[in-house]
Amino acid sequence: MSVTRDDAPGIVLTGAVVAGLGWYLLQPERVATVIGVAHGIGHPTAVLVGWAIALCASVVGTAAWWWGPIRLSRAEATWHLSGPGERGPVLAGRRRRAAIVTLVGCLATATVVAVLDWSATPAVLGAGVGAAVVIVTIASAHQHRSSDRLSRRRRRGRQRWSPALLHRDAFAPDDGFIAAARMAAVTLDLGWIDTARVARWQLAHAWMRSRRLGGGRIRVMILADVLRLSRRRGDLAVGVVVLAVAVALPSTLYLTSIAPVVATVLAYRAGCAWACGLRRLTEVPALRRALGGSDPEVTAIHAVVPVSGVVLCCAVIALTWHLSLPAVLVVAVGSSFATVRRATRPDLPFDAPVYVTGQGGATQPLLLLAMVRGLVAVVVTGLLATLIG
User: Fold this and answer.
1) What InterPro entries does its record include (predicted)?
2) Which of 86, 89, 98, 268 could form a disulfide with 69 if both were Cys (CB 3.0 to 4.6 A apart)?
3) In which element (H, E) is residue 356 found?
4) CA 114 – CA 123 distance, rounded (Å)
């Protein structure tokens, strides 16, 4: 993504608003009323360092892994780097820029964690710096391995880390990530990035050995959904990480009134991570028709896997969290409904009627309702679970 001078005032204003809200919400005395470090497991500094590393790896590290330390659009690679000039300095500059962005992201994440205990700030910030170094190193090694695989050459020594020798498809892949990121920034909908990630996985797994699944029609569709999830190791790993967070959170941190809300978000995320089959049926109506049967029947069958993820997460929460059984049941039912609603969201109606306000503004209510499909159920579930306790 590129930023022009015309975008600078809006970016500065947005940054100032976000910084002001962050400063207001992340005051230590305000944060201590809802979350803090649990005593008895270990030293608070060690606990916060562990959470800082985990958050940096899951948030910043995932972005660096999928985006790549060196990323150019296909047009930039074609028109700017195809001349007689050396492309090494340009790519090295992009790598340094990525390293700086990674460092800033890790420091920001570590600062948020350090709010829980300001006395642990030096250790937590040091952990953020170390995490940034590891993230950039691993992401760069992954990009160079991809380049070696594309060029079918294995480089050694200093050439292995030279950005000038990277294959073009390694730093400017035609995977639509840049266009998806721009659309996500314009429409405030992260579904574009998820679609680009799925398309990227499909390009890398265009051929798979088929398997004959026996049994009845319902059993075959469920097994096919399980097989699809097993091939999507990234989605499977996200579900495992959510379960790990559900186990580690009550052991290391204490949550007060926001515990039911956090439990709802975790259960909903676990279900969405395993809802790839249901999303494909929604995005490809021809596949749904090829399976036969009514739409409610096919939806119910393919909802078994994501609902299983929600139930598994709620079972872990019931065993490790201090929530009442009615609250856990509300979280399970509400998160399952929200997961199915989100996975069955149709294409966004960008041609929806526009409502012009009296002040000269314009909005599309139907588009906004479609964008928050499933998220409203998460909010309502969290509120009900909080009232029940």
Assistant:
1) DUF6297
2) 98
3) strand 355-356
4) 9
